[in-house]
Amino acid sequence: MGKKAGKPAASQSGADDILQYYAPHPEQPLLPEDGFRVVPAFGDAEGYRELIHLRQGFDLVLGNVVHRQDAEIAVPEDAVLKFHFRLTGQGRISFDDGHELEVRQQTTGLLLHPAGATKHQQVLAGEQEQSVTLLCSPAFLADILHGMETELPAVLTDYLQGKPADFYHVSLPLRADMSTAVSALLQCELTGGLRRMYAESRAIELLFQAVQALMDAEAGAERPDRGLTERDIDRLHETRDILQQEFVAPPTIEVLGRRVGMNEAKLMRCFKQLFGQTIFDFAQHLRMAKAKELLETTDRSITEIAFDVGYEYSSNFATAFKRHYGITPRAAREAARD
């Protein structure tokens, strides 16, 4: 393990779990009613964390931090329930009572632990953490999930009833709809009240998606990783990483299988089982998302953007884009500008 993090100067804000190792952002301060944005003040790291207060007992933490060296952050925490959605970056978390867990990219996790537990977050050099965390009090969850008590997983039912928290953690693959919501939150450029309203709507969307995933598991629905070995899961995550980097011209199934060491039939079947999408659909989602970003943020022509995301003919791109989003590329650009 590399250098342990040191504390920055004291801050006026009260969110000790963030500001022990972060300092107020010098260029993007936020109004107190909107939350606050901070920058790393430990090791060799850059980026930001942002806390947005959404409702009483419901807070959102956005993380986009690049770590240049290994570090460890030790933070005493309360017993609030946390839903964590990790888009990119890996690390480890341990507690003084001996509990340890690995945080992998493209996962969603639920974490609950006794009040006063000290969390040791180990960050690794070269990793870029892009994440969203929802902090939910029992009162908030009891209100927003009212009427669903008999359907909820046992851990949530106990939490809503105010029973003393024990250590609990579960990790599941990040579904495509969750990944879209996380990306949208991290890329949001709205400000002020509109930003908070947008963040709240997306955060509640993520909360419901995570609760549904837990309910599926509690009801006996087959877990996405059932029957897969740890080696299989590593290879499938490697496949997903390759597609994220090479989605413009994705490798064939045959080439992917050779690169990750898995036969084609097993690769196709297990990828869909773990991630809920076929390899083609996953790569296509990435291509369309990139195209939409370019349409909304650049002046490149639609023909140029079609080439940028791997289409030789703009007509084929326009057909695929409309099939994916329900509108033409031109309409998407005009809507963004309006």
What can you tell me about this protein's structure?
- The protein has 338 residues and is α+β, with helices and mostly antiparallel strands.
- The protein is built from twelve helices and twelve strands.
- The strands form two sheets. It has an eight-stranded antiparallel beta sheet.
- Mean pLDDT is 82; it is low at 1-15.
Which helices and strands appear, and what pairs or packs with what?
Elements (H helix, E strand, L loop, with lengths): L15 H4 L2 E3 L11 E5 L4 E11 L2 E10 L3 E6 L4 E8 L2 E5 L4 E4 L3 E6 L5 E6 L4 E9 L1 H7 L9 H7 L7 E6 L2 H12 L4 H27 L11 H16 L7 H8 L3 H12 L3 H19 L4 H7 L5 H12 L3 H9 L1
Antiparallel strand pairs: 1-2, 2-3, 3-4, 4-11, 5-10, 6-9, 6-11, 7-8, 7-10, 9-12
As a percent range, the share of strand residues is 15-25%
C-alpha geometry: globular
Strand order of the largest sheet: 1-2-3-4-11-6-9-12
Low-confidence stretches: 1-15
According to CATH, the homologous superfamily of the largest domain is Jelly Rolls
- What is the number of helices? 12
Question: Brief overview, please?
Answer:
With 338 residues, the protein is of the alpha+beta class.
Describe this protein with a few key phrases.
12 helices; 12 strands; 338 residues; 4-stranded antiparallel sheet; 8-stranded antiparallel sheet; Arc Repressor Mutant, subunit A; 2 domains; alpha+beta; Jelly Rolls
